[in-house]
């Protein structure tokens, strides 16, 4: 999931030029088929362009592929943080 998102997630050019940094917290909900059900901001970066790009990256990366049959729940809920830093960016979550 993380690798697929990383392929389409970008540091917005305008934010990079203005040296804007921040971290966006998202709740990503996927069903057993790997289809995106919902994505919500749990913590804003305080910068709309960064928040928007993180959300759009999730939509661009979806669908994510079927969850293992042994996964016991109908939905997978992922709390992820998208960190924008001059010189790089990273995704981390639980």
Q: Alpha-carbon distance between the termini?
A: 12 Å
Helix-and-strand structural type: alpha+beta
Count of helical stretches: 3
Helix content: 25-40%
Polypeptide structure, described:
The chain is α+β, with helices and mostly antiparallel strands and 94 residues long. Helices cover 28% and strands 37% of the residues. The protein is built from 3 helices and 4 strands. It has helices at residues 2-8, 13-17, 48-61, and strands at 22-31, 36-43, 75-85, 88-93. It has a 4-stranded antiparallel sheet, covered by helices on one side. Strand 1 and strand 2 form a beta hairpin. Helix 1 crosses helix 3. It starts with a helix and ends with a strand. The model has no long low-confidence stretch (mean pLDDT 92).
Could you write a compact summary of the structure shown?
The model has no long low-confidence stretch (mean pLDDT 92).
């Amino acid at each position: 999931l993380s690798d697929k998102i990383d392929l389409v997630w970008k540091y917005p050019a305008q934010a990079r030029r203005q040296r804007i940094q921040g971290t966006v917290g998202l709740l990503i909900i996927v069903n057993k088929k790997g289809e995106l059900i919902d994505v919500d901001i749990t913590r804003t970066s305080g910068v709309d362009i960064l928040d928007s790009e993180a959300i759009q990256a999730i939509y661009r990366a979806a669908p994510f592929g079927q969850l293992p049959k042994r996964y016991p729940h109908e939905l997978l809920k992922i709390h992820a943080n998208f960190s924008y830093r001059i010189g790089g960016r990273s995704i981390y979550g639980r």
